[in-house]
Structure formats: structure tokens, C-alpha cells
Amino acid sequence: MSILLFLGVLFVLVLVHELGHFAIAKWTGMRVDEFGIGFPPRLFGIRRGDTLYSFNLFPIGGFVKIFGEDSFDDSVNKEYTQGSFASKSKWAQSAVLVAGISMNILFAWFLVAIAFGIGVQTSVSEDNATENAKLTITDVLAGSPAERAGILPGTVVKSVEAGGETLDVLKPSTFSAFVATHVETPLTVVSVYKGEPNVVRLASEPGIISDNPSQHAIGIAMVQVDTVQRSFVNAVSDSFIYTITSTRDIVVGISQLLVDTVLMRADYSQIAGPVGIVGLVGETSAFGVTALLMFTAFISLNLAVINILPFPALDGGRLLFVIIEAVKGSPIAPRYVAVLNTFGFLLLISLMIVVTWNDVARLI
């Protein structure tokens, strides 16, 4: 099921990206030879004007073939090249290349807005929490009683019992107070983790809380998580802010990774490749449709940021070539572009192999 969800997410995100290229290419008067849904071999196609709309066997995205996009020869008759990618202005070429990235960002905004409108699980204050709020563990202190008992972040606490007294109306403050006042007897914590019920027994210890070392605690950080549903206007505006801030954070993260890679100190163990994303999609879907929408939006933003990098074989690399051509006033020799794109592609494949190896190693 996780693999099918992953393929579905990939299909939609790549198709949205290519739809951006397609729409702007048509709008700027470029000839689009083919707009493919899925990847070859081709099952069937429908021609409308100059464009073949093909339906292909492998449903893992799509592609756009724009006439003259990959090469341009000035010796070719101008009449023949009319409508080609290279015959258009540098502004038109740039718009086509940026369109796919822009569509991924806009699509992420759209998905987050839908999720906010349906209702997203969000940490809330005790005063604003409804009766449906869940006491959720966000962090477990290393070496604490909670860690030794096997409690993990993401656990939802249902009740706690000690000395025959049970507390089942839980807030962070009431849970902490209950633990602090039951220091002589073991605690029984009833919880749910990823849909699976769990019961653990443990004893609180002093010295856990640095501000109050004499107070007994079990070493967890907690918040109340509630489903917050926004109005249409707030969903649209809040999702816009979320998209902008998330894009910024992704840019910072990827930039730092690139710097660390150059300095030979990059930690690829924290990066998820295709295998890792399959697992993440499965885990996320267990939390409901809004969680899956938010995750898909996050992946869409990552694709946008990665594609804008000025690296050969990516849209950002092709955009860089267009800028160089605009500055020098003449096209770059196609053979040089082909060599650089091939080099970039091989380097990206090598990085993908490293990341996938880490994914598999984590599973083993």
C-alpha cells in the first residue's frame, strides 16, 4: 500500500511540474510536440493540433517535448525553426523553465490550504484545547525512565495510574503534577503509538528537570494536540505563509547540505531517498488524509527547490545556460550543453545511489 501511495504522490507531483512547462510553452507560442502522461512505452495517443497527448505504461509522472528545446542549429532554415524553444526570446525560455518549479510551489500552497480547511492536528495551549485534544509526547530525554521503558516521541498518553489512583483527563500540567506527587509507587502509563495500544510501568526519578532537580519526573516533553479547522480565508492566507516559510527552510537546509558536501562533512543519513520516502508516505498516511496532504506539499516544495539549483540536468541548470546565452549574445554550442547535462545527470544518479544505500541500511 505504501508503494502505491508513493507512486501516486510521485505521479501527481511530476505531472503538475510538467503541466507548468506545457502551459507556458503553449502560451509563449512554442510548438509542443508531445505531452505525455506516464512514461513510455506508449499505450495510445490523441493528437490535437501540433501536440500529441500520449498515455504511457508507467504511471510515474509525465513529460513534455518542446520542439528545439535540447538543441538549436543556426544553419537550419528559419522557417523550420519557427515555434522552437531556441527561437523564442530569453524571457520566454526562462518563463518555461521556471514554470514547472512555480507549479510545484503553487500546488503545495493549494494542498496545504485544503488540509487547513479540513482541519490539521496542531499543538494548542491548555486553555484553547477542546475535549478532543490529545496529550502527545514530543520528546524523550536520553537516559530517562521514559526512554528505558521504551516510550517514543509521537506517543499519545491516554491515562496514568499510581497507587490505585487513575488520571484520565490529561493535560501537560496535570500529568506533571500527578507524576510529581506519586514518587513512592510505580506509574502505569496507558498510551497509543501509531494506532497500537501500549502499557508501560516505570518509576519517576529526581534530577530530570534542570530547573527543579528535586522534583520527580519521567523525562518526557508533552503538548496537547488538537484538530484545528480554519475558515476559507484563513486557510488560504495561513497556507500561503506556511508555503513561504517552508520553502525558505528547505532552501536553507539544502544550501547547508551542499556546503557540507563540498567540505566533505555531509551527513547523508538524514536524507531520505525513494526507499525512505515510501516508508514515510506509509507512516504519514496512518495519521489521516490531512497529514498525507501536508507531506505531499512538503515533497512538492522540495522538488521545486532542488529543481531551481543551477546544476546541469536540472531546470535551474538549463536556466543558467539561458542567462549565459543572453549575456554573451550567442547560443552555447550544443555539444558543450550535452556534455554538461550528461555529467550532471550522472552525478545526480550517483547521489541517488548513495541516498538509497542509506535508506536500505536503515531498514536492515
How would you describe this structure to a colleague?
With 364 residues, the protein is α+β, with helices and mostly antiparallel strands. It has two domains: 2-119 and 231-363, no CATH class; 122-228, Pdz3 Domain (Roll). The protein contains ten helices and nine strands. The strands form two sheets. Strands 3, 4, 5, 6, 7, 8 and 9 form a seven-stranded antiparallel beta sheet that branches. It has a two-stranded antiparallel sheet with strand order 1-2. The chain is elongated. The protein starts with a helix and ends with a helix.
Keywords:
364 residues; Pdz3 Domain; 2 domains; seven-stranded antiparallel β-sheet; two-stranded antiparallel ribbon; 10 helices
Rounded to the nearest angstrom, the distance between the terminal CA atoms is 20 Å
> How would you sum up the major sheet?
7 strands, antiparallel
**How many domains comprise the coordinates?**
2
Q: What's the SSE pattern?
A: HEEHHEEHEEHEEEHHHHH
Oligomer: single chain
Structural class based on helices, strands and sheet pairing: alpha+beta
Compute the number of strand runs: 9
* Percentage of residues in DSSP E strands: 15-25%
- Give helix % range: 40-55%
| Shape type | elongated
Give me the Rg, rounded.
26 Å
How many helices in DSSP terms? 10
Whole-number mean pLDDT:
83
Contiguous runs where pLDDT drops below 50 for at least 5 residues: 72-80
